[in-house]
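Limitations
The structure tokens in this dataset are predictions for the assembled complex, not deposited experimental models. Users should treat interface geometry with appropriate caution, especially where small molecules or nucleic acid strands are included. An illustrative entry is reproduced here so readers can see what is and is not provided.
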Amino acid sequence: MKAIWSSTLCSLTGSLTTSVSFISPRSLSILRPAPSFLFFDHRSLPKTYSNNHHHQSRRTTTTTTSMAASFSPEEARVPPAIQMPTPPITKFKIGLCQLAVTADKERNIAHARKAVEEAAQKGAQLVLLPEIWNSPYSNDSFPVYAEDIDAGSDASPSTAMLSEVARLLKITIVGGSIPERCLDKLYNTCCVFGTDGKLKAKHRKIHLFDIDIPGKISFMESKTLTAGETPTIVDTEVGRIGIGICYDIRFQELAILYAARGAHLICYPGAFNMTTGPLHWELLQRARAADNQLYVATCSPARDAGAGYVAWGHSTLVGPFGEILATTEHEEATIISEIDYSQIELRRSNLPLAKQRRGDLYQLVDVQRLNSR
Amino acid sequence: MKAIWSSTLCSLTGSLTTSVSFISPRSLSILRPAPSFLFFDHRSLPKTYSNNHHHQSRRTTTTTTSMAASFSPEEARVPPAIQMPTPPITKFKIGLCQLAVTADKERNIAHARKAVEEAAQKGAQLVLLPEIWNSPYSNDSFPVYAEDIDAGSDASPSTAMLSEVARLLKITIVGGSIPERCLDKLYNTCCVFGTDGKLKAKHRKIHLFDIDIPGKISFMESKTLTAGETPTIVDTEVGRIGIGICYDIRFQELAILYAARGAHLICYPGAFNMTTGPLHWELLQRARAADNQLYVATCSPARDAGAGYVAWGHSTLVGPFGEILATTEHEEATIISEIDYSQIELRRSNLPLAKQRRGDLYQLVDVQRLNSR
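Predicted assembly:
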């Protein structure tokens, strides 16, 4: 274990039980252009720029065969990638609760609670729930079922249940998503609870599901929902987890960004449909895992052929080699499967992609992290 | 056709028969830091920086439901993405020649010629060959089989054949790859020939295949080969084509960069192996196509179980929805399949990913294109 993992935690987090906060209202309020010029000058620009006076020698050195030394792979991520922290636990069980969702919110909450409890009984230390598990998935339902998460338990019975059950069972819960009301806006929101029942992070779906495939499926989340404004990555008792909700998985940059922030696992609660599900759901999960060499876990509602929106199902755990470790069909089911973070380091030593990237040719900029420096 | 495609070509290319050149020795020699500061100030930095004096109003506008207007998707690519040009032809046939490769170079050249001729007879207007088709795939062979492509026909019988057959058959050839000798260096190089037989572009593998999976496969291309220094995209008679060679496909940034330069198609000659092939070859091809909503074509050598390096085979054409349009097994075979570029626009209107990206959160910088401005 010690041989595999770096013994130093990244400087971004005070402790592993603290959410990783890359940008604060305070840091936003003091943004000025000057630091970015300096940053781009010294760090993110290719050497042909930042070491302009060494231009000729640079051209010479890039033709050596030692890629890692010559092509500045560390500059392929701006700011530079954070080394993956030592996880608090290497091996543990994850539970993916693919739930049947009804129009009865109280029933949905009780039903989800039972599924989480059963998963914990089977040894799950991390439980993942589906996208929109307390409400039908429709623009008509979102305002009706939405809860004010920030206002606390009475205003948000769904998250109050998750908090309580996380504390009682001493497990981490990535609570799928529910419609959230905040002031006059609605969001599609995922809450992460720690083993003490405290809310560790809240992810509002960044990329809204606005698609139109004539004759197949049309859906416009933006009719009722507002998009979130920030990526969400959180240090938990079971490792550093990046969160995306469903359509967020289509944007490869978000997964790259989470990997560069040191994520062990990306959780995507999601409800792909009968048109894009068969072709893309497994593909996208496996691609995000293999390209970024980390774990990906997804959780969908069970399929209800009579619903206005028919979910594809197929909740899945994918390992850092892009291999499917566990999956299910479309019916209600709970997957219990093992995550072994030492596999990440193994795959990264087999295929050292991070050392082979070409920072002289492309760079992925994590804008908020850059601005918060 | 005219309704679907933009009628204006991007300003980067003088004509469709000219290779897209993003960086020249001349432009490299005049690089100065100042323009990049200005560029980052006005274009690539998030609005919170570049419009600092409007900071408060920016924070307000990002909470509207209109993602495209609020979140600067056009800033997700730096420099901004180039609109895909009108292709000279919308529908055409591509031929993927999965060739058996031997230690006899003359035989390999004659054999490849025959395969290209047969593909053209079956209507292929674009023919793709495998990675390292004139030589065994080994570090011992590369120096022996390498040719001096720039020195012309006598010094490079493999590319001389491709040039001649392209001219005689009036087809475009993406000529797989061969070991190239240039001064004291060796490269893994793909040549693209136009219908006039002229060399339109030359791609030197950017990411060398250095992997080590103990007990399964170990290969270090960097022992003999030097990595290329630039992405390669070329306007041909059959559309704008980005080139990657084998391991290049693992680096998602390269495909993003080609898509942002307006590629219709990315061609990856490649020879995945028996360890990574089954798990990753199809996955990576489909992911690059679906994420970037363009065509991906791959071509492998046929499998030779007695070779030092055993190729997985499975040459494939993937459409812009990530769908496999044609594929083969591991034996020698030629695939003839149709490409229909109007499908790109269809898929992009179904799933408008380009308009939904979050330039306020992440940006993919095309370093050489940025520097050449």
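Some entries come with short summary sentences. For this one: Residues 1-69 of chain B have pLDDT under 50 and may be disordered.
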